[in-house]
Amino acid sequence: MSVQTPPTPSQETQVILDCLRQAVTKTLDRKRRLGQYAVLWSGGAPIAVGEDAPVQLTTRTVSQD
């Protein structure tokens, strides 16, 4: 059995990925500080994370690192 390694992204692609990660991190942090919930994908299903998350979605709390 051969092990395949994922391709290394180009420098431009890596810059774009880093920018997107930073934007998402900032947005999730801002929502957490404002007391708003966020919807994430986990285990093949959407989950609502936060104190005011709707009860229709599976909820859980996020650690405040």
Task: Give a verbal description of the structure.
The protein is built from one helix and three strands, in the order αβββ. The chain is flat, with a radius of gyration of 16 Å. Strand 1 (about 40) and strand 2 form a beta hairpin. A three-stranded mixed β-sheet has the order 1-2-3. The model has no long low-confidence stretch (mean pLDDT about 85). Helix content is about 35%, strand content about 20%. With about 60 residues, it is α+β, with helices and mostly antiparallel strands.
Task: Output the keywords.
1 helix; flat; 65 residues; alpha+beta; single chain
User: Which structural class best describes the helix and strand composition?
Assistant: alpha+beta
Q: How many β strands by DSSP?
A: 3
**What spatial order of strands do you see in the largest sheet?**
1-2-3
Strand content: 15-25%
Low-confidence stretches: none
Profile the largest sheet.
3 strands, mixed
pLDDT averaged residue by residue: 85
Distance between the ends = 40 Å
Which SSEs are present, and which pair or pack?
Layout: H1 11-34, E1 38-42, E2 45-49, E3 58-60
Please give a quick description of this structure.
Helix content is 37%, strand content 20%. It has 65 residues and is of the alpha+beta class. Strand 1 (38-42) and strand 2 form a beta hairpin.
